[in-house]
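Fill in residues.
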């Protein structure tokens, strides 16, 4: 046994990694929550609903083939807790688990058509440096593995840090985010069906700005996949 494994075993005895929700059962190794809690997470019906909340958010703003979120934010706050831990506490395993679940839902959906490429919503370099990872890219990578479609993190980039948006109106936010996202290689996206992936949709401004950055590319189609959305 390697020293690393011995240390992990000892750590496991003293501080077993308990399920983040029930704090009782132990999840399978590398998983953030146990199987029992997983069953009760608030799934949406978006993968088989052509009038779902994500689509309604984007209506009249961008043209999408299909769009879906895997989870609703529930009143018990479990999905909120997941998103918080993923964004601020370094729990990458959450994005992997949610990505695998979303990928599986995608495969059984009658509405989604397989995209050619998955593109995560880009993060500015400074944000990436401070957090150490882009949670949307980890999510996208897990989806990519399940549905067998490559993910490209280098095709869309964010070129300047968006100032704090919390006090601004929705219109300003769109303008604010627009123009900061750039397509790196237009040629590679001609006639491609792009699946944009992100963690949470609030106003939809980020997704809109990604799609708008690509909208002049000939033959380009866009679909959207998210981890979670508030119930409308
Ligand atoms: Zn549990």
């Amino acid at each position: 046994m390697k020293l690393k494994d011995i240390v992990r075993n000892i750590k496991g005895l003293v501080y077993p990694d308990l399920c983040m929700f029930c704090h009782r059962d132990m999840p399978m190794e590398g998983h953030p929550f146990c199987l029992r809690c997983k069953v009760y997470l608030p799934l949406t019906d978006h993968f088989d609903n052509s009038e779902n909340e994500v689509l309604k958010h984007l209506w009249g703003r961008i043209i999408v083939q299909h769009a879906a979120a895997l989870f609703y934010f529930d009143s018990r706050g479990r999905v909120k807790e997941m998103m918080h831990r993923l964004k601020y506490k370094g729990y990458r395993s959450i994005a992997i688990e949610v990505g695998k679940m979303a990928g599986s839902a995608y495969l059984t959906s009658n509405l989604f058509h397989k995209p050619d490429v998955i593109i995560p919503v880009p993060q500015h370099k400074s944000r990436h440096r401070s957090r150490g990872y882009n949670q949307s890219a980890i999510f996208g990578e897990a989806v990519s593995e399940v549905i067998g479609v490559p993910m490209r993190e280098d095709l869309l980039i964010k070129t300047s840090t968006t100032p704090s948006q919390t006090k601004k109106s929705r219109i300003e936010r769109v303008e604010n985010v627009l123009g900061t996202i750039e397509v790196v290689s237009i040629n590679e996206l001609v006639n491609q069906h792009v699946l944009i992936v992100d963690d949470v949709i609030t106003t939809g401004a980020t997704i809109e700005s990604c799609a708008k950055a690509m909208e002049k590319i000939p033959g380009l189609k866009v679909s959207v996949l998210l981890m979670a959305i508030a119930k409308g």
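The first strand starts at residue 67 and ends at 72.
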